[in-house]
Amino acid sequence: MMGMSVEFHDDGCAIITMRNGQNRLNVSTLKQLNDALDTVERNVSAKVLITTGEGRFYSNGIDLDWVASHEGEREQFLQTLWDTLWRIMHFPLPTVAAINGHCFAGGAFVAICHDYRVMRSDRGWISWNETLIHMRISDPLIEILQHKLSAEALRESVIFAKRITGPEAVKLKIVDSTEEEDNLIAGSKRLGLQALGNNNIQRADLQNMKKDLIPRQILQSVNTSKL
């Protein structure tokens, strides 16, 4: 599919690669991502989901130019974004974000909704830069941050919008590990497969446990001026 590829490997790992340049999030790229997630869910042999980008970016966040030029679609876009993030959060397989490059704002939200995250050790930042671009974060996204980041990580990467390197992100527990570029996918596979171990966890049971322990309580924002 244009802009997004899905590969199934013999070890049971499904890999979605985002191929839209900076992988900015708009209606088109969110549809591509959801179509790719549908493809993975339909494959009963898939055991682990890995998402990654190519080149310099995992994702450079929301496509603000698109949002500005499609003001009438803003509310629907935001709802689709929130729904997609929670779909990843509650996905019925172990999920790993293989963060190949820069991962900012909306792209960082995509990454932290995975069960596990692996960054390159030598290149790339993860950051929520809303403070720097005069934007506020909507309640549905704040809920995700509160589920996924510690107070220290929130302070450094969100409140003060610092660009966090892979090794720094490990210390802040934003990501689980770092790998050199050539080992990024292999390391991500290892994490995902180790999560399952020898347990025969059924998809429905895994999804139900995620929903119970990481419940979605804010379905929409009362203030859509925030992203």
Describe the fold and architecture.
- Helices cover 41% and strands 16% of the residues.
- It has 227 residues and is an alpha/beta fold.
- The protein has a single domain (4-213), classed as Alpha-Beta Complex (2-enoyl-CoA Hydratase, Chain A, domain 1), CATH 3.90.226.10.
- The strands form two sheets. It has a six-stranded mixed sheet, with helices on both faces. A three-stranded parallel sheet has the order 4-6-8, with helices on one face.
- Helix 1 runs parallel beside helix 3 (74-89).
- The protein is globular, with a radius of gyration of 16 Å.
- The model has no long low-confidence stretch (mean pLDDT 94).
Write the layout of secondary structure elements.
Elements: E1 4-8, E2 13-18, H1 27-42, E3 48-52, E4 57-59, H2 64-69, H3 74-89, E5 95-99, E6 102-104, H4 106-112, E7 116-120, E8 126-127, H5 139-148, H6 151-159, H7 166-171, E9 177-179, H8 184-196, H9 203-213
Briefly, what is this?
The chain has helices at 27-42, 64-69, 74-89, 106-112, 139-148, 151-159, 166-171, 184-196, 203-213, and strands spanning 4-8, 13-18, 48-52, 57-59, 95-99, 102-104, 116-120, 126-127, 177-179. With 227 residues, the chain is of the alpha/beta class.
Q: How many separate domains make up the residues?
A: 1
Question: What is the fold-level CATH name, i.e. the topology?
Answer: 2-enoyl-CoA Hydratase, Chain A, domain 1
What's the rounded overall pLDDT mean? 94
The coarse silhouette is globular
Q: Tell me the number of helical segments per DSSP (H or I, 4 or more residues long).
A: 9
**How are the strands of the largest sheet arranged?**
1-2-3-5-7-9
The tally of beta strands, per DSSP, is: 9
Helix content: 40-55%
Structural class: alpha/beta
Q: What profile does the largest beta sheet have?
A: 6 strands, mixed
In the CATH hierarchy, what is the architecture at level 2?
Alpha-Beta Complex
CATH class reads Alpha Beta
Low-confidence stretches: none
Order of helices and strands: EEHEEHHEEHEEHHHEHH
Nearest-angstrom radius of gyration? 16 Å
Distance between the termini: 28 Å
Strand content: 15-25%
The CATH homologous superfamily corresponds to 2-enoyl-CoA Hydratase, Chain A, domain 1
